[in-house]
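cron nightly-structures :: item 1 of 1
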Amino acid sequence: MSPETARIHFQEELQRLEEQALGGLDMVVTALDRAIEALNHQDVELASLVINDDDRIDGRYLEVHQGILSLMATQAPVAGDLRVVAALLHVIHHIERMGDQCVNIAKLIPLDGHEPPTHPDILERIDKMAQLVRSEVGQAKQCFSLRDAELAEDLVRQDEVVNKLQREVFQTALEIGDHPDVREWAMHMILVARCLERVGDNAVDIGEQTAFVVTGLFREFSDASHASAP
């Protein structure tokens, strides 16, 4: 195989691995939608599906990770491709972590019983968080695919709203009252909000990897995208 042919093969394989990795974000959106639907309807069976299907996201992680390592063993990438290779290793890791957060939400659902006491303000904020985070995941895929650093940095704007809603869920849960069942449910919603906040943070991290691919420099967009839990 000539050097030119080998180079073309390398770039084609790298593109295929990138498409596989970014396809994992579609899997995350599906898991997130199912987890929130299961939460809203207290659907234990759907929650179990989220948990079981996480094996597919984990499998995608392993497939892309091993594919990148095998590709690196065949040909040394030039600087531009090396940035993509390094970024994809981070991206697929963030995708795997997003899937884990969806599983964490699903695992909380059976703990509250069939008809748990709820609070409309908390549920409304959880739903808003889920919508924003879903948008962040989709935008993370788009910005990396398009190599759009400006679109990547715009993720911070949405993530700041997610962080604000998380703090509001936490505060409302603290003030919810003294009934043990209500307080237990509220504590679970704090954990749900934390899981959603982490999915959003991982989307911002993918945006940061996009900027790295485009510019060759890594920087965190904003401290707000890495806010710690209340």
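cron nightly-structures :: done
The radius of gyration is 20 Å.
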